[in-house]
Specification:
Number of domains: 2
Radius of gyration: 20 Å
Helix content: 10-25%
Largest sheet: 10 strands, antiparallel
Oligomer: single chain
Order of helices and strands: EEEEEEEEHEHEEEEHHEHE
Number of helices: 5
């Protein structure tokens, strides 16, 4: 299977310098007023920014009424006089720099390098940073069930059917397995995080951060996608898996939208 390489800062010749856009350090950043377009609302609004070196095309999250919605910077102003308290702020910037090798994996692309597109980086594409004051209570259940027999999942039939639909619609945007720890992002009414552990072909400690409180469609979709990915790895990528014991899959449209389309200097190399 031939690899696909992504390099958003590729130079045209060996002697030419890369057109990489260096981000300023926090100390170098000057306050700006940025125009941000929110696709889910079809609106462009102005926000105050004093934390990030922003440029048109950057993907950001903000506070205020549109908190949690992904926006794209359309314009940046450095010359202004405003009353800061009248503005909501930019609170996070998506890290869209991806350099590395991917392989075909049906509706996804797969990498075996943990540095190419790690979990935290992908989360910056789809979710704002979590509130430091967020409080969770987690009840662990070490008793597992076999991945090849999901009857141990104890899920309502209607919920399971919706989960199958999510899987078939490729709503699992990202899934990684690092050792025994698995994590995934599923596109629902908003992006939800699913986590689980996988040992000796058994699934345990399966959780989703959606408000259901019971086995949900997002978990069903993730397990089906996980099983498909393992079957593909065994068939086509056993050597890569044996070497790293890590893999991550990412939705093809998501990778193109963020790693390629969001980086004007990106280069896609097909092997």
């Amino acid at each position: 299977m031939n690899p696909i390489g992504f390099n958003p800062f590729h130079s045209r010749t060996g002697q030419e310098k890369s057109k990489k856009r260096e981000r300023k350090t926090v100390a170098e950043i000057k306050p700006t007023i940025v125009q941000i377009f929110f696709p889910d609302r079809g609106r462009t609004l102005a926000y105050y920014n004093d934390r990030f070196d922003l440029h048109p095309g950057d993907i950001v999250f903000v506070d205020g009424k549109l908190a949690g919605l992904r926006g794209r910077v359309t314009a940046v102003s450095t010359h202004f006089k405003v009353k800061v308290e009248d503005y909501k702020r930019v609170i996070s910037l998506a890290d869209t720099r991806v350099v590395g090798q991917f392989y075909q994996a049906n509706a996804h692309l797969i990498t075996f390098d943990p540095l190419v597109l790690p979990w935290r980086q992908f989360c910056s594409w789809v979710k704002p940073p979590e509130d430091d004051g967020a409080e969770y209570y987690i009840s662990y259940d070490e008793e597992g069930f076999p991945l090849d027999d999901l009857s141990g999942l104890e899920v309502d039939g209607a919920v399971a059917e919706r989960g199958v639909g999510y899987y078939r619609e490729n709503r699992v945007l990202y899934l990684c397995l690092n050792g025994v720890q698995g994590r995934a992002i599923v596109e629902g009414t908003k992006p939800y995080e699913v986590e689980f552990q996988y040992r000796d072909e058994q699934i345990s400690n399966l959780f989703c951060d959606c408000p259901c409180g019971y086995t949900c469609k997002h978990e069903v979709a993730v397990l089906l996608q996980f099983r498909e990915s393992l079957e593909l790895i065994e068939k086509d990528y056993a050597a890569q898996w044996d070497e790293s014991r890590y893999f991550a899959i990412v939705s093809k449209p998501m990778l193109y939208r963020f790693a390629v389309d969001a980086n004007p200097g990106a280069v896609l190399t097909l092997g």
